[in-house]
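hi! just following up on the protien thing from before. the input was this:
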Amino acid sequence: MSEVDGKRNIFWIDSYSPPDCPEIKFPDRIISRSTGKEISIRDHREKPKGLLEKGNTKQLGDLTDYLRDAGIGYIREFIFPVYQESLGVFREHLKRFGFTIDKTEPKDVKKRKEKIWNINYFSADLYLPRYGCILELDSEYHQIPEYDSARDRMILEYYGVPTYRFFRYDINPERYNMELQGIFRRPQLSEPWYPDILRYVD
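and the predicted 3d structure came back as:
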């Protein structure tokens, strides 16, 4: 349990500053809503075979090369906790986009969908602090499209952060670079902006 100025939170426990972005804080551990056990965000993100290592794909490398050449800063695997009140928003969007859990579905599909229904946090591929937006790299492995759509809507409504998705950036970078140029025509924020992710609402 975390407590600041008398405000208590029972969803996340402690916080830490990631080595790649020491000016922000992520939850260190959270309590899984499906098992009641602690989940180490720090380990899931930072350790070998964690989110940062697994996300090292060719399309990510191509896109981050473009961003670096353009002088645009980014944070990889930015953590967005799913608090109880935002979980309701997420589930409503899932249902609106046609998400269902069917008992007749294969066991692995059903298990994946149940995990989505009780999601604890989202990890964004790239967060751009000077533009206050997310860039997501999609591939053929994204097999439940309702999840992506509902996630994007929830993050926008709850955290105020829009998401821009790119399918196989590595195959068609010229097309997507034109889309990126449209995003980056907007003036940069005067200071890096980070959404308020450590909330005392649960």
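The first helix runs from residue 41 to 46.
The helical segments are 41-46, 51-54, 58-69, 84-96, 107-117, 145-159, 173-184.
cheers
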